[in-house]
Model the fold of this input.
Amino acid sequence: MRMLLKVRPRGDAGNKAIVDGTFGRVLGQFMERFHPEATYFTTEDGERTALFFFDLKAEADMVPAAEPFWNELHATVDWSPAMTPEDVQKGLASYSKR
Done:
């Protein structure tokens, strides 16, 4: 299932992770393992925020995807299913057949 993973390293922990290279290492490991189709960096509520869109192949993959962000970056992590316009069209077609 296509997912949006939102990661927000918090305050001083995020600053430290940027300076000591932890952020780059954790980010690189995530990118290498999960091959997101899109990645964006922005801010939310004044905090650094990374948005990853990727295919979550199994629910158990949530653990290796999120734990490094929690443990090494002290980040908040939010998951949301994400759809393409084609996915919405399929869903609408299925819904209209009821």
